[in-house]
Amino acid sequence: MAETYDFLFKFLVIGSAGTGKSCLLHQFIENKFKQDSNHTIGVEFGSRVVNVGGKTVKLQIWDTAGQERFRSVTRSYYRGAAGALLVYDITSRETYNSLAAWLTDARTLASPNIVVILCGNKKDLDPEREVTFLEASRFAQENELMFLETSALTGENVEEAFLKCARTILNKIDSGELDPERMGSGIQYGDASLRQLRQPRSAQAVAPQPCGC
Amino acid sequence: MRRAERSPAPPACGLRVDPYGFERPEDFDYAAYDEFLSAYLAVLTRRALKWSRLLQGDSGLRRTATVKRYIRKGVPLEHRARVWLAVSGAQAQMEQNPGYYQRLLRGERNPELEEAIRTDLSRTFPDNVRFRKMAQPCLQKALSDVLLAYGLHNPGVGYCQGMNFIAGYLILITKSEEESFWLLDALIGRILPDYYGPAMLGLKTDQEVLAELVRVKLPAVAALLDGHGVLWTLVVSRWFICLFVDILPVEISVLQTVLRIWDCLFNEGSKIIFRVALTLIKQHEAFILEATGVPDICDKFRQITRGSFVVECHTFMQKIFSHPGSLSMTTITRLRESCRAALLAQR
């Protein structure tokens, strides 16, 4: 079945082992928590079409193995990503401490303009928390990241994290800050927008898109 | 907590959990499996008789042409651990180092290693009832000990994700921690190139070697991947890292296929991995070539590790020695050298 969408964004999910990257992706795509899951070896892949600010956007999401040594294998997949979820586990300081290294990888290997949202996952395990909200939000501010605490278990803020990242990219396209036509932007026009581009302007108003905010 | 809906009771003809503790998937095709099994049982019976005779003989398990032929046709389950230990050299190592495994576990601890292993314990074979926390006995403890001992024994490698599946699988087959440890040592220390070390250079090299072999033997597939800028890492790194465990779906029917692959791996070495990979790709060449984009290519490479072709292990194992054509160790060694040099130059 052919899907129509205005844009396609390449996304990454990165962060240390055991932070719940694959569970976040699974929750976002399947709308449920993956109870019995294997860890990711190498790179996995998922996609979903979302509606953001009246535009349909296909998110092509690359989920990566978190163990340090796999970075040398997965890095090749960073190239041309438009957005990233940078994930740590709020109950593990160690996963928080390695954020800077992951961020450097994303900005040098994907694109300096990559839109990154920091996700403090396992929000449902608040009693075991080792990283405060305040501390992480300061880190996010200093590094110009968006920030949410998420729970792949309950689904809290999972959808929001992906949508927020997508919305920011769309805004940057609108403002001209991001150019989808630039090589390696991680953004492609979909069939829908190509059709619109080919059609005379008057035809564009026929089917207004519902607002998905 | 929400869980995936379960289907109603399985048909009376089959058990929901196989003899190794793996839960069968909801869409398990009992009829097709029974049909395959009734034919395969005859093969197994014949092989079992021949193996009993071989093992009773004086020549035993020296690596002769007869033993190689026998192993390619499948080692009966009851002899599997013994044969793997003998042909891989693990048995000799174990006998030369009595008590070594236990001493490793009593020795100095390494908290970082322990933490890395702990992260993956509940993520190893989650679909196997014996690896669940509530199982009695729970194999997570054995798994943890084998991985820990190995990381202490070979600190250059430590623990790499993927080793958990291999160790877990060895524990299921040998039912012995110590034997699993020495077999893991045979695989990581001798049989496989450096797949699991921090630089994973052996893994990256072998992925490139496979790419080169596909370029020569199946140029259309290579052109498809190259054309879409798909790196072979994406589609095959799991095949190499997990040695087809957890790739070819692990219920008993396909488990047989993985066991049969490992029979040859322990006896003939890492070349077997290329034979299996090339056979899977060649068999499904037309199907792979239908792919129109990167996600589609990934999906097709996932699908080719499923279905009747891989379930029918006896035919599958015959095909890995005929389908890919000639594949000499000289070729592999030469390709490994050139790919490794190219990778080192890129750094």
From TrEMBL, chain B:
InterPro entries: Rab-GAP-TBC_dom, Rab-GAP_TBC_sf, Rab_GAP_TBC_domain. Pfam families: RabGAP-TBC. GO terms for molecular function: GTPase activator activity; small GTPase binding. It comes from the Eukaryota. Keywords: GTPase activation. Residues 74-269 form the Rab-GAP TBC domain. The keyword Mitochondrion does not apply. May act as a GTPase-activating protein for Rab family protein(s). This is Growth hormone-regulated TBC protein 1. It comes from Heterocephalus glaber. The gene is Grtp1.
